[in-house]
Amino acid sequence: MEVVGQGAAATLSSLQIHFIQNMIHETLEDFRDVCHRDIVNLQVEMVRQFYIQLNEIHGLVEKYSVNESLVEEVEKLREENRRLKTNY
């Protein structure tokens, strides 16, 4: 068995070092998976919020855009006003 380390600290065998490396690797892998899942959830939430904003913007555009039927009505009323002014 190979022994690593010197001095007053406890020495570690290659098996112990390998075990610790595997433990660190598994922990980092779990952390990476959690980070990836969090990022995906954030992206999904952003898409959901953008969709909500898109619907709100569409509603506002429809509410404040020029309505063709109202434009026609205004033109008819203007014409009627002109006729009434010339007759009276």
UniProtKB/TrEMBL annotation:
* TM stretches of this protein: none
* One Gene Ontology term from the biological process aspect of the record: mitotic cell cycle
Question: What are the annotated GO cellular component locations?
Answer: centriole; centrosome; ciliary basal body; cytoplasm; spindle pole
What InterPro entries does UniProt report for this protein, alphabetically?
A: NEDD1_Spindle_Assembly
Q: Which GO terms describe its molecular function?
A: gamma-tubulin binding
Record keywords: Coiled coil
* Name of the molecule in the record: Protein NEDD1
Source species? Notothenia coriiceps
